[in-house]
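User: Fold this; tokens only.

Assistant: Input:
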Amino acid sequence: MAEMSMNKAIHAAFRRDLQRFVDALQRFSPGDQPRAAQLTTAWANFDAQLTNHHEGEHEIAWPALEAVGVSHELLTQMDAEHDTMAAALAEVRRAMAEFRRTAGTEDTAAALAAMQELQRVTVQHMDHEEAEIEPVYLANQNSAEMKAMGRQFAKVSPSQGGTFFAWALDGAGPEESAAITSTVPGPVLTIINGLFGRTYRKTVAPVWRN
């Protein structure tokens, strides 16, 4: 049995990026337009990854989890937390657009405050989800429902898949890396991550090396 679900490993990537954004905005020198552009590029990727994740949970994961015994009431609660997270995402989206435009002191502070709120509600939701649902993922990892769920999540373009793997593995520890890659044949992962993850590694990964 795996020790960590892919879902929990993906959550770790969200936690890493949120802290990276908070740290970067706290260190930001007002007026540094090139750095503001870098952070905005990284934000666009993060926004897409988190949006795809929580929408995919509602559309794909929740029906599979309900089929293996998770209560509808709990999943409704999870959706309510997703709504709170989506509202915080929208606020950061607006704040980061202003930050990119001006790179000014006030807009940097506003972007930081919005990011910290997004971090708070997202981590709170992920902690709750992992406490309630991580044991279900692990106990049912070989079930027909979980395997069908995985196939549904895998129905993305090579470009989207490559970007996802490059992002999720950027800074992942050994256990997280194993959880993320365990269901993908090695040669397939090499091609998808190597060829289609190039854009992430060229445009986003360097943001976190500065």
